[in-house]
Amino acid sequence: MRIIIAEDPNWSLDLVPSLSNLCQRCIADTIEDHQHLFEKLTPQLKDSIQPRLSLSLPLHVTANLVPDGVFWKRCCQQRWNICDISHYGHSWKRMFFERHLENLIELFVPEETEFKVILDVLPLCKNYIKRLNITQLLLPSRKFVKGRDDDQHEVVMLTNEEEDDMAASHFDFGIVLTELIHLEEFHLAYKIKQCGMNFEWSMFQITDRDCRALTTAFKACKTLKVLRIRQSQIDDKKCRPLLRCLMDHPSLIELDLSHNIIRDAGARSVAELLSKGQLEKLNICNNEIDIHGAKALAQALSNNSTLQYLNLRLNQVKDEGGEAIAEALQNNTTLRYLHLGGNDMTSITAVVLSKVLQKNETLKTLNLSCNNLGEIGGKALAEAMVHNSTLTECDIRQTDIDETNSASINKAIWDNQCADWDKEVQQRRKSTIYL
Amino acid sequence: MPKKKGKREPLTEEEKLLQMQQRAQAEEEMAKKKEEMLLLYLKEKLQKEQKNTAVNLLKLTESWRKVLRQTRDKELLAEAMVHQQTSDRRLEELNFIIQKMMRELQQGQCQADRVQSSHLQHVEHLWELQEKHLKGLHQRWESSLRDLNVMCINQEVKALDDFRQQNLGLVDLYLPAQMHDKAMFEYLQKVQQEVVDVYKNAHQDLDALRTEVKNLEDGSALNRDLLQKTRNSLIELDQRNAREQQEISMELRNVKRLKNKAIKLRQQIFTCQAERDLMQQNWNFTTDKINQKCRHLQEQLARDRQEARHKLTILSIQGAAATKNLQAIITKGEKVLRLSELCRKIKKQQEIMPGTSEDKQKTCTAEQEVLELQDPQELKEQQQLQELQDLQQLKEQQQLKELQNLQQLKELQQLQEQQQLKELQDLQQRLNSALLHREAVRKQNQILKQDNQQLQVLLKHRDDMLDGRHTPLPALQPPVESHRAAGDMHHNILEAAHVAKYLVDSWS
Fold first, then answer.
1. Which residues contact A218 (CB under 8 A, 6 or more apart)?
2. pLDDT digits 0-9 by tens, B313-357
3. Which of A165, A199, A347, B440 could make an S-S bridge to A376, C-beta 3.0–4.6 Å?
4. What is the pTM of this model?
């Protein structure tokens, strides 16, 4: 075939492409058929071929063949607008696979979509996925057809537990979690985005069957470090089995069950998990934990030596719970962050806390905002801060503490901060001198 | 007993009366009592009956109400049932509404909780991003600080090294500098001694010079006297210079005044010329107008003459016609006269013969008619004659008027021509005077220019003389005699010029 120079716009007499370039082009165009050739190339050559690879190549070809680089960057940018790789450990391949699988799961309609789709993808991406952040889980569509005309009946249905068992469940994570052998973080939220006119309250709940499925899934996944299930209407009954299965989990470090409806019983099971497991970070903010739940947690806290972060914000712990937690802190030497904001606490808790603070030397951040501590609480805290030298953040906004006391507390905090910074600077100097 | 009887009888009558009275009284009392009794009885009866009626009323009402109650019981029961049912339904509805509100509240609460939780999550996410960002910034800042630190340290080290090197260099340079200092010091001392020696020598020289100066001073007193004399002469010369400068300035001012006058005269000449031009234009314009008027008048005259001729012809024709008429009338009149004469004759005859008066009357009437006929004819003739006469008079008047008009026109023309001649003569006189004035001013200007030139030459010569140059003076022109009084001024100026020249010559 003869090609005239005038016809080919890319032709240039000056730059005759080298043979290696031509070979690279050929390989890039026919990579599907010549995968073994691609594998034999050096990493440099592989990187140079990546910009030319077609983005429409099937995953099963590219997943294990193309290493992390420009090709995956192009894939990500073609598909999604905002790509922040610092969130994905600076790996484009990881971002692509995680988001790809998240998309598949989020758009999976149970009893309609073929599970095969996900099954096919799983073996390809299991080496690269470390975090799954699922923000939507769809329900089977026939349920929507059912409950549209009977409003009252629906209310009855929600409260009726027997019928709830019959309700269809969301996506089953069992197989997914078993396959993903490197998964370390698992974020779930049982809600549906953009439901439009098809809104129903049942779209925003985790069902019992889901709980059971999750328990089996968690048992299978041995590398899970962070578990987060938010805004899924988890109550005591659903919380218990979940937490029971996590009690013997070898690697769970962080548990986040915030924005659910966990009450005292659930809090008790959380406390059990605290005492048996090795949790370092526990976030149960915006639940309905009461005094008894707080007391159980406080008991677990006093015996615990691994927890560093405890967030009990926006519960109803109240003064008795607050007192219990404060007394637990006396024995605890590992907790660094304690958030008790918005718990209907008053000056009584503040007084007890201040006694603890005078002796405590590990707590660095304390948040008592939106509790009505009053003048007495303020005074007590101010007196405590005189003796405390480790607390570097104390949030007392909206606590009705008068200005003099809050000023003195802030001043003490500032002094502690400055001391901290000085220590850091000295350490740095020492390290530079040694260098 | 008769008295008693008799007494009894009257007594009995009295008794009867009394008894009658008593009976009457008793009866009255009885009646009263009866009445009272009746009243009481009636009252009691009334009261009883009132009580009875009251009781009966009560009974009646009770029984009436019983009857009503019995009839209304059923209705009330039915109404109560209906009310109860409606109230039950309302209760149910309200309960339903309350439950619905509760549900909505709960759902709203749920929604609010969800919104709050999602908001909190977003805020936390943003917080994390913010902290990440801050950490990044902090790290960059710290790294830049470290870099700066390292840079500063390096710079300090470099500076220290440089400083040390400089120190060493300075030390190296110090010794030769010291040697150099010593040499310079010795050199300076030598120079100082030399200067002191020179100073002493200079003092000695000064003393010698002072003695010489004193000798010279004695010999210079004479020279001072000569100097003072020369100074006095110089002062006198300066005063003379000042006076002559003042005179020259006066002359210059006079020259300026004359120039201004010449300019004004020139302006007057220009204005007279302009006036003359205007007057000429006016004269031309008026002559044109007058010519036009003459033409108009001549045309009018011709027209009038033609009209008069026309009228005359018409009048002549009319006159001829009138004369013909008159002649006819005259013939008629003659006829009539003849007839009248005949009639008079007849009358006379009739008077002589009065018998036939009717015929006379008839003839008189006929005569009267004839007379009457004659009268109008005569009147007509008279009127026509009068008309002819009027026409002739009118003609004559018209002719007279025309003649008068012509005469007036001619007089007007003559007057206008005279006026124009007069104006022309005035203009010519003015022109001549202006021209003469102009020529006089020109002559004055020429004279002034000549004087100016002479004065300027004299001034130059003066200046040259003052500066010390000796140049020959040009020959001064003889002063021009003029008719004006300014000639005296010229004379004064020229005399002054001559005086100055004499002085200059005397100095040289």
1. A177, A224, A227, A242, A245, A246, A249
2. 998 998 899 889 989 988 998 999 999 999 999 989 888 876 554
3. A347
4. 0.54
